[in-house]
TrEMBL record:
Gene3D superfamilies: 3.30.70.360, Zn peptidases (3.40.630.10). The keyword GTP-binding does not apply. InterPro entries: ArgE/DapE_CS, Bact_exopeptidase_dim_dom, Peptidase_M20, Peptidase_M20_dimer, Peptidase_M20A. Keywords: Hydrolase, Metal-binding, Zinc. This is M20/M25/M40 family metallo-hydrolase. Residues 194-294 form the Peptidase M20 dimerisation domain. Its cofactor is Zn(2+). SUPFAM superfamilies: Bacterial exopeptidase dimerisation domain, Zn-dependent exopeptidases.
Amino acid sequence: MDEREKQTLLRLALTGAEEVLPRQLALLGELCAQDSGTGLEAGNEAVRQLLRPLLEELGAQIEEVPAPGLGKHLVARVRPEGPVQGRVLLAAHLDTVFGLGAAAEYPFHVEGEWAWGLGAGDCKSGVLISLFGALILQKAGLLPPWELTYLFTCDEETGSQSGRELYRREAEGADCALVFEGGREREGQPCFVTGRRGVILGSIQVEGREAHAGKAYLEGRSAVLELAHQIIRLYGFNDLERGIYFNVAPISGGRPNGVVAGEARGEFCCAGIPENRDFAAIQEKLDAMAGQVTVDGCRVKVEYRTLFPAMEPGEANHRAWTLLEEPCRLLGLTAREISDPSATDGAYLSTFGVPTVDALSALAEDIHTTRERVSIPSIRQRTALCALTLGLLPRQKGALRNPCA
């Protein structure tokens, strides 16, 4: 593709993004009107049904993957008519952090250049940007000779315990992954994420012995006191130099204060894990806590799970990031590659060996709060960017090859 053809593609992307914006906002409002918090199956069903006409318009083959107790993941494949020259995964999630009734209490609305709605920025605008970017090309007959595989999961907000298996399945044979989580920007220039830190969630459960806090105090074994020692031990695992942080909340335990507590519990998070090899050392420390009891007679149980692995920056993810350099140049922007301390399920695609770049969606503010909103100009810009990125894929195949392979 020469420069003249690129300029033609640029005009198509910009014009198309402008034309589809009203439709995007209308559909975003419908999506945000659904209570689709993780585990709200009726809301998940409603969101999937709202997306189905758009997927059918793209000519996608639709698969719904059951996730018991959560709803269904949505997989949609847009295949070229001729030979498939490559395969790109386009990932976003359908669930939010908000409970039943929240969407009606905080309805979607537009104020100036901002669209307000629960889940608007995380991650429903990303779903729409990924779809309308392809639709712009499809209307012009310019979809790449690649398979576009859309992965819209329903449990990202709780760590993709079901969705990760879908990612594992779809990672096989994929050339790259574009993840449409919330966008990043520095000094007016777009930043795309090729590194994120991992997270562990867990709980400490302590069993003690109840006793009257006055006449039988010495017969008791305070689970609350033991939990306090365990919490201090946990905070001692902090690695401030490397940015690995433990935090405990909430905590509970005991009955009235006239009774020595017979049980106590605390939940914890370990965030900022920079490399996947760090997980083993952290897990070893957590496993040892049950044997480090300070209050004689108490029993300690520590349970934990990986919420997200680390998305390790490296050559593979950098190659995925280079796919955005030329589209950004055409838009008059300079793409920046960054690492971000927050976690998303894009880390699973990266961990499963797919060159992955994240944060392709619009700019959002106050996600996970009732003030969540997304920038309308950035929806338009990122839709044009998506169309350009997909339109240039046939020219980018070489950029994804491992030079050491």
